[in-house]
Amino acid sequence: MLKIVLIMAAGILAGFLLRNWKMIHKIGGIIFVIIILLLFVIGISVGSNEMIMDNLASLGGQALLIATASSLGSALAALAVYKLFFKKSRGEKADEG
Amino acid sequence: MKGSIVIVVCFVLGILFGVFDLVPDYILEADVAVYVLYALIFAVGISIGCDKNLKHIIKNFDVKLLLLPLATIVGTLSFSALVALFLSKWSVTDCMAVGSGFAYYSLSSILITELKEASLGVQLATELGTIALISNIIRELYVLLGAPLLYKVFGKFAPICVGGATTADTTLPIITNVCGKDLVFASIFHGLVIDFSVPFMVSFFCSL
User: Fold this and answer.
1) DSSP B20-67
2) pTM above 0.80, yes or no
3) Domain residue limits, chain A
4) Which of A41, A52, A96 would you mutate first to test chain B, the one with the most B CBs within 10 A?
């Protein structure tokens, strides 16, 4: 985890120092390419993991259920925090959602 | 949207490559994913650093955003516990142990497999560990692929809370894209807090 923070800090510093170099602002496209690459690599590790692929039908359903429930719970909690603490009561639609 | 489709296609391609063993073993063993992740983090760092609004974003950081990790934990644990009603095979704390992986699939699945062996036996512990692995991968994929939808339906914080432990690294670029750069530091802070809490919470629910 410390490594991640240090790499991020190095990136921020590099970006800050190079902020006036026009090419640096094309970084968004590069990030997208790296995300695609990362998903491809994650896919490979899932696909080559026999324990996952052999049990996909039986365990996958239960996993999907827990993943969906925990995601839904977090999303609802996020919505609650947004509505309770961030949304201004005036000047916005009152009955949204 | 088009971006999400490209991502799904590449993910499925990766799975096929893995299933049909098209990748040389030395690449699998080299843990390429970690280095790709480092490259991603560095690139995200650059994009934050060169942002002309950086000063403005830091100045306007809202202290209330510190509530987000709390929302993630409360929402995840309560709904994971509810799942036990539908899965008679597993107890409430088993389901909460899987949920408290918070998308950190590698660590949570290993911890659960190891820690549950004493009480459930090797077979069931491995099953629950595999469920944790798949479940937490799915959770990460929900954000990588569904962040725009989450944003639309559940508001601007939803992609962060669903992202769990991953919002400081893998899902950070998607979140900044969808939710806006002003949430960069909230997302990183949230990811770090959840990340640190995963080992403690998984062990706790495994011990109950």
Assistant:
1) TT-S-HHHHHTTHHHHHHHHHHHHHHHHHHT-TTHHHHHHT--GGGGG
2) no
3) 2-50+60-86
4) A41
